[in-house]
């Protein structure tokens, strides 16, 4: 049975924010694998939102919020690209960059979750479950190399 897209998004937000919080600390021994795990969760999540969630939210009168969300995704992708080329051996610099990414994602999540009540009013539970299925399908189409 399909899961409500809002429930999926909230769960994934919590998971990614938890990893980002850990990555924003110094002295992490498995930083590289944790960073890879975070990207493997975050990048498909953003793609799934853009392909399966935002078009429906846009049609339900949330146009400005959708446009802002896409720009926030673009900013996080740019920051991740910069972090990919930074050396983890300079922990102070790497952690500082990660903190900026964490702050951007926290801001995005806060604003996105503020429109969830409107989404619950705008869509039936069946619509939200169908969106959940489309979201999961879109995430699965993100190539591993892009993560």
TrEMBL record:
<protein>
    <submittedName>
        <fullName>Hemerythrin</fullName>
    </submittedName>
</protein>
<feature type="compositionally biased region" description="Basic and acidic residues">
    <location>
        <begin position="131"/>
        <end position="140"/>
    </location>
</feature>
<feature type="region of interest" description="Disordered">
    <location>
        <begin position="117"/>
        <end position="147"/>
    </location>
</feature>
<dbReference type="Pfam" id="PF01814">
    <property type="entry name" value="Hemerythrin"/>
</dbReference>
<dbReference type="InterPro" id="IPR012312">
    <property type="entry name" value="Hemerythrin-like"/>
</dbReference>
<feature type="domain" description="Hemerythrin-like">
    <location>
        <begin position="5"/>
        <end position="118"/>
    </location>
</feature>
């Amino acid at each position: 049975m399909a899961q409500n897209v809002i429930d999926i998004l909230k769960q994934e937000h919590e998971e990614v924010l938890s990893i980002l919080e850990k990555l924003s600390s110094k002295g992490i021994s498995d930083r590289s694998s944790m960073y890879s795990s975070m990207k493997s969760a975050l990048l498909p999540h953003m793609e799934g939102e853009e392909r399966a969630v935002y078009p429906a939210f846009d049609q339900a009168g949330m146009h400005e919020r959708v446009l802002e969300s896409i720009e926030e995704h673009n900013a996080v992708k740019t920051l991740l690209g910069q972090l990919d080329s930074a050396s983890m051996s300079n922990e102070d610099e790497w952690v500082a960059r990660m903190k900026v990414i964490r702050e951007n994602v926290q801001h995005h999540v806060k604003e996105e979750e503020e429109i969830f009540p409107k989404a619950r009013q705008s869509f039936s539970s069946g619509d939200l479950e169908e969106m959940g299925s489309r979201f999961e399908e879109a995430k699965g189409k993100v190539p591993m190399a892009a993560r």
